[in-house]
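Shape matters. As here.
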Amino acid sequence: MISLTEDKKMLGYEVFAPYPDISCFVTTRHGGCSTGNYASFNCTPYTGDDVNCVRQNQEALCAALPSYPQELVIPFQTHSTNSLIIDETYLNATYSERQSMLQGVDALITDIPGCCICISTADCIPISLYDKLRRVVAVVNAGWRGTVNRILASTLHRMQAAYGTEGKDIIASIGPGISLASFEVGDEVYEAFRTENFPMEYISVWKPETHKYHIDLWAANHLQLSDFGVPSQQIENAGICTYQQYEDFFSARRLGIKSGRILSGIMINPIINV
């Protein structure tokens, strides 16, 4: 990953660097004003953080982007497979209608410049997508429940249905999240993946010393991209484990649920008339 700011509060992906028409970022824990388990750059509401700190952090985030967003669109996630297309219907809705539309949504899609679509994670896997031909972007929250229910594949197929997206045109990033080494799971989680026909020999290992399975969520989501036809050279895996690097990235397994979240966002930059 590459640093987007001098204080390293926002990181970007090399795979998106050749595309100046979009902005894509991941926040770290640095450079904000939140305190305690929210320290310091928590930009996500819904977490119990001080609302003024969240607002200040969001303003700093927006100011650091090449173009100031029209809106940070942040859904209230529930580990579902629900996606929402941010279109004119959303933009023309009232504030309360928008909040209702964002309830129980774990993936966002848009082709509207200036709308920065975001998802919040703290060990789950954030995935950003860009259809470079049709100029459509998407973000996906892929925790284990979303991954086992193939939320990423579902989002890609919705992009295909709505915009004609093809795998060969997708640029994708698999962001900071819990790694295979750290994601110890119970038998019920292992069985959930096995029942859904994931190749367990590829995405899991058995640790005899703990008598536990470990699941590779990075690999499980990479498979969904590959199955859709996304070329491997167009996929970047950050390779950052939030559980291991919790001083730099929020980790719910380390800090508990009442803690900050990583905000991952992507936006089609608005065209500025000079």
The domain at 2-177+231-268 is CATH 3.60.140.10 (CNF1/YfiH-like putative cysteine hydrolases). The chain has a mean pLDDT of 97. The chain is about 25% helix and 25% strand. The chain has one domain: 2-177+231-268.
